[in-house]
Design a protein that fits this description.
homodimer, 311 residues, Jelly Rolls, Endonuclease I-creI, six-stranded mixed sheet, 4 helices, 13% helix
Chain lengths: 311, 311
């Protein structure tokens, strides 16, 4: 660890709603560094030896917990909380699941699926034989006490929360609007890697150690999360070559679904993947981009699969 | 030119609808190379010396023309037309406009705007003093005769058309489903560069010389456009560092609008841009990505601005 934390938050110090009524468990000064020890998004219900049968018995009242809240001295409503993402350290395993009723293609995949990936220290993990995905750990959930609550921890909103944004890796800086005194930051939902969209609803879910620096910005007034991506290796890596499938439709959700379905078809015909494992791979490694959002009445969502995962 | 074209298509050989009733103007064998000389998307109505007043008198019946159609021997319905994008050469100028009633934020920007960019031979163009955008020329419109018609050339669909997809640069290969004998390819709408989304509805619009190789693929059966992005410099360039604004909403269109509005705010407060010129810059250089499309009821669209444009 390069930075000494001001405080440490143990893995059992979590809560299960975004709610301004939840009191802070610790307080740091502006500029304080917090180390979080985080269970995976199942709250420890799923392990490296779990099977698909365990998806059926998952207690959804205990998922997507977030650890905290951490009060930051001097933060007032209308300020911005600057969250420097200093370090993320994933566990040596992670899970990806298709959970019935959840995910972009829930109608296409009514049955549960569960897939475990071993996570090495290096830059890539073997998701399937011959398919290695780049590791870029981050936390799906980072947020402050919302304006009103309690709110579920599933949908993100102006306070942040479950943004599931893969670009929030170590070295990035997140800015969150402050709604209540002391801001009260919580985080969780460790992801070893993910594609833009997280189409099956889960990434490579993993326990995570996270280190963040929390600074009050009196000069900045935001209405929703904004962030600066990381410099260094994350910025220097090449764009890379991609195979891309399009969805073209009058609404972006349908376009996103169609683009993903066509990517699943391509992963089947070119790489021999069964549809459900292709769906999980899309969630972990394929990016949804809005190619055009103006040529009424049809929009284009494109699913980009980096070819480097097959090298 | 590295490849000798089989045929040349002059700039006045265009049509103004996607329509299977339009006869081919030329025929090439499978593997034939076609060179297109293309007017800009205004059909030559706008020039480097036009002003915002010319937006008001634009004849919309003459915009988004496409040149062709080119018949490809042996192409049959159910085949795929492989379009290798060999070369794109933009003119030495281009225009970007906000056109009343058109664009993602048409309600926010009711007045017309018109901006001319000088386009050098090099890799970047000065869009504004101190803001240089990377040039990555492509054609917004590439399509085959649609299943039924006539259709407007504005919305894209399964036949391709106005996909406005910035990743279709030289070196990429586009695959289009074939609906009619000889496929009948047309293209137009030269863009010197664009962001994912093309939020104001125009890119850097420019006359273009395009060179493509057309090959019939009997082994491939698609339902919509798919493509392989370019190898070489386009793939090797770094991802780069970005400032990102989020839109979080129950529908992706609203999320895209909110993310773009917040990016316009950031370009104002950090870089001193007036809202309308920031809107044009977003269309030219900012990318809309779907960060998450599963955490019901709220989705996240993120607008990514590459910081390299300010170097």
């Amino acid at each position: 660890m390069l930075t000494t934390p001001t405080i440490h938050v143990a893995r059992d110090r979590f809560h299960l709603a975004w709610d301004p009524a939840i009191p802070a468990i610790e307080t740091v000064p502006s500029g304080g560094v917090v180390e979080f020890d985080l269970l995976d998004a199942s709250g420890g219900q799923l392990t490296a030896s779990s099977t698909v049968a365990d998806i059926a018995t998952l207690d959804f009242a205990r998922v997507d917990q977030v650890n905290g809240p951490i009060a930051v001295e001097d933060a007032e409503p209308g300020d911005t909380l600057q969250v420097e993402l200093l370090e993320f350290e994933h566990a040596d395993w992670g899970w990806t699941a298709s959970i019935p009723g959840f995910g972009l293609l829930a109608e296409d995949f009514p049955d549960p699926a569960y897939h475990v990936t071993q996570l090495p220290k290096g830059p890539r993990a073997e998701f399937l034989p011959g398919i290695r995905v780049p590791l870029a750990p981050f936390c799906g959930e980072i947020g402050v006490a919302p304006a009103t609550g309690p709110l579920s921890t599933i949908p993100p909103d102006a306070h942040g929360g479950n943004m599931d944004t893969r670009h929030l890796t170590a070295g990035a800086t997140l800015f969150l609007p402050v709604f209540h005194a002391a801001a009260r930051l919580s985080m969780g939902d460790g992801h070893a890697t993910q594609g833009d969209g997280e189409v099956c609803g889960t990434a490579i879910e993993t326990p995570m150690r996270a280190l963040v620096r929390l600074t009050v910005r009196k000069d900045l007034h935001l209405t929703a999360p904004e962030f600066l991506t990381a410099a260094g290796p994350a910025a220097d890596r090449p764009v890379g070559r991609r195979y891309v499938t399009d969805g073209i439709a009058p609404d972006l959700l349908t376009a996103g679904r169609d683009a993903t379905r066509r990517m699943i078809d391509w992963l089947g015909r070119e790489h021999g993947l069964e549809p459900v494992i292709a769906y999980l791979l899309c969630s972990v490694a394929v990016d949804l981009r809005i190619s055009e959002i103006v040529d009424m009445p049809n929009f284009v969502v494109s699913a980009h699969c980096p070819l480097a995962i097959f090298d």
